[in-house]
Amino acid sequence: MDAREWESLCDGCGKCCLNKLIDDDTDELYYTNAACKLLDRDACHCRHYSERFTFVPGCTAINMDNIASLTWLPDSCAYIRLFQGRDLPSWHPLLTGSKEAMHAAGMSVRGKAVCETKVRYLEDHIVLWPLKDAD
Fold this sequence. Notes:
The protein has helices at 3-8, 52-55, 78-83, 93-96, 100-104; strands at residues 18-22, 29-35, 39-40, 45-46, 114-115, 126-127. It is an alpha+beta fold. The longest helix has 6 residues, at 3-8.
């Protein structure tokens, strides 16, 4: 699979751009609704994708070499689904031709996320909806 094909697998949900917390005692992962400052929370894409590491040095590139170690990606993520031997969900943009079915299924951050720069305490923004894995 070449880089273009790999990138096309991304459904553009924006969940990977949400801040996450890990409990120091239990190692349990918690998602928040606080999104990276670069995320366009309506269109659900990075405003500066090609230069994102300049703006957010801690941003993670998702690739075939590191997918197994990215345990913080949600089960709905196409990369994770394919890594686990599962099919793309019926709402995936590669199957539907647009992101609208994904948004309609509630699988994106659209209308649910806030910008991290507006958040004082991440602990106050823990949410469960990013864990939803429809289809």
